[in-house]
Amino acid sequence: MDWLPGKRRRSSDEDLRDRQKAIAKLRERAASAPARNRPKLAAALNDLAIELAAQGRPAEALPAAHEALAIERELAQAKPARYRPDLATLLYNLGLTLMELERPGEALAAEQEGLAIRRELAETGPARHRLEVSESLNNLANTLRKLGRSSEALPLGQEVVAIRRELARTDPARYRATLAAALYNLGIAYADLGRPAEALPIEEEAEAIWRELVDSGSDRAISDLAVTCATLGARFTELGRAAEGLPFAQEAVEIYGAMFEGNPFHGRHLADALSVLGDALQQLGRQEEAQAARNEAARYEQGT
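The structure corresponding to this sequence follows.
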């Protein structure tokens, strides 16, 4: 909605101060009426941690995340059926925050615990629990790769794809995008292990889904299509098949060029796509065009 004349838009710091005041009041209430207010306090602390992390302040988010988790553990011990799903979510969020802080060893423990809970819930629960299992598996795979344990990450990525493929069969409108994301990540996992030929068909499947979603009018899928096209351009070139990769690289440049016009943030993405294009052109013996693409990439990398 439009802001009325004389009204001042609230800053994020003001919103945070209000959250912190509300948390202070909940602490007081939880001291005298814990059964009613401690669940509210845990939820408020978790919301605060999420907001701080979203603002790029994970170090400030961490104490709130730890406190929320400690309360949720107590609640889940007393009433597991009611609170264990929330405990798994808080562990998931803590893992994300710790990864933002470059603390993968600590993130790993939180993610493994959260995954174990979500697996239990998925055995008898609705489809959303299976999706949550796949999300936890995906984060755990990313953490293992960060720790240099890519061979352990690969089967997790394969399981993510299997879960989301099943979900997409039953409800394609809801789950096709999540399947495409899982396929893309699995392709990257194969490539990280030096297996680009196995990565290629998986990434091609992801690209086909993103293209289908874009063609059906999903604006949110456009950036995903762009990054997958850039990856395919690089992958084909890596495999000595630059002629097949060239159209994908060109399309990535075209998409990111349009996105850059609307938001300069995409300059770095455009630079990456231009570098991929330059590599493909180089392999095809089109030296002058390759150099021109690389020069343009350098300009966008430098923000000019």
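DSSP finds 13 helices and no strands in the chain.
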